[in-house]
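ARCHIVE RECORD
Type: protein–small molecule complex
Small molecule: zinc ion
Source of inputs: curated submission
Record status: active
Notes field left blank by submitter.
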Amino acid sequence: MRPIRPGDRGPAVTEIRAVLTGLDLLSKATGPHSDEFDPATERAVRAFQQSRGLSVDGRVGAETWRALDAARWRLGARTLYHAVPVPLTGEDVRSLQERLLEMGYDTGRADAIYGIRTSRAVAQFQREVGLVPDGTCGPHTMGALRRLGRKVVGGRPQWLRESDAIRQSGPTLVGRTVVIDPGHGGTDPGVVVADGPLRWTEADLMHDLASRLEGRLAAAGVRVQLTRGPSPETCLPDIDRAQLANSLGADVFISLHTDGHANPEAEGVATYHYGTDNGVTSATGERLAGLVQREIVARTGLRDCRTHAKAWDLLRITRMPAVRVEVGYLTSPTDRERLIAPRFRDKLVEAMVAAVQRMYLPIERDVPTGSIDVSELRAAVAAGTVVD
Ligand SMILES: [Zn+2]
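STRUCTURE (tokenized, with ligand):
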């Protein structure tokens, strides 16, 4: 075939330009349906060739055409598998490889070829999220990738180990270690509201909540450790709290706070997991925070102030899935009234136990938010079955 070259016109050029535009190599403003191989098209072809390791001549010969054709595929548009003797190639394969590499799986170089190594990496991923490890990337695997791997995990391989450990250890809570961190304490009372009926401080209230949570988790066979007692002499810095959790080899870390604001109308629950502004996040921390957030909102009716990524010491230094929960505003009359009711704190506890349990259900067997009855769940786990 004669290479398509600068100055050519025709439907083939329109097609080439469409693929290059889809790859962001050609500006959408340059005439989306033009059939002219203009200088901008030539520049885009060259950039494409360079990025694919092809010889850069600004023309579309057989090799460049094949590469452009492969570049059309968007991840999720087709099922990917290890085909022999001619392997599948395409931009979707490259996206998959990049995503797996980011998550710490060894696919080899992201070369856009679905070879045996990519297939093995997919199978390993599948095993870890509880899917059939067949090495084929179909809708279920794609869904799991979307839910777990959307954000970057690179640079912090322990996050991968976190999810490894979670998947390998099964759904039971028995024998796990959860560190609960009631915020503040000692010389630091946290948020204080002068006119509170019982003059609750954030520090006291969160210690009470932590004790209730400790009781429920311990009843489910969890080893629980609090980072402080009810009235410590000094306030332990967050770094020390995080290091305590690390030294105990905790499986989950939950830090409990209430929020406060000068505006009494500010109210609601928010959760925080480790992450930075440029999209780096702890995938398991984000999952834990999301579960805690959704369970609390569903079970208590607190306003949903959502889940956020923060690079705070507490979240950065902890090596296990870690969440900081701000269970309402002590400065909001509405939230305060709820929080000082022991019954309401029990609801919060129920929500957090359900969230911790859901962390350990394989994604495929996860249950709708607000649906776990924790006592039934314990019975099911004890009987060796999982609530579906
Ligand atoms: Zn606080």
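CURATOR ANNOTATION: Residues 183-184, 190, 202, 257 surround zinc ion (CB under 6 Å).
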